[in-house]
Amino acid sequence: MGGEEAFTKTKTTSDFCGQIVEIIKRAWPRKTAAHVAYVTGVSERSVQFWIAGETRMSLENVAALLKTDAGYEILSAIMGDARPAWWVNAQLAQGLRESKRAVAREMKRTAELRALQDQINLFDQ
Fold first, then answer.
1. 11-27 and 59-66 helices cross at what angle (nearest 10)?
2. What are the sequence ranges of the domains in the chain?
């Protein structure tokens, strides 16, 4: 009573910590520990412990990872099934951005195919 108590390891915490490790492995498939160490400012050995599941990253380390290109995916892992209005809006905005990028890619691909078709038509004349 009145003393400090450490946070206990919960399934939820373990789940998103493991998910973050998987995300960083996908984001930096080569020299993962070196990249993450650079971003978070910790030693490569510390990152290797995170990847092995022997230790967990601190809030400061997670915050540093949120500032990378993998940040949205990391935030999604942390949020899990939570549905506050701000998060739903953020997910909708991200979905729209992804859709716009996909449309732009397909428009570029269509233009390239049309250009190729035009070249083929020149040879047929």
1. 40
2. 9-80, 83-125
Q: How far apart are CA 63 and CA 56, in angstroms?
A: 13
Which pair of tokens denotes residue 99?
A: 């859709």
DSSP state of 101: H
Closest CA to 78 of 68, 65, 89, 69: 65
pTM: 0.73
Reported as a single tens digit per residue, the pLDDT across 14-52 is: 588 899 999 999 999 999 999 999 999 999 999 999 999
Find, among 14, 1, 6, the residue nearest to 56 by Cα: 14
Specify the fold of 9-80.
434 Repressor (Amino-terminal Domain) (1.10.260)
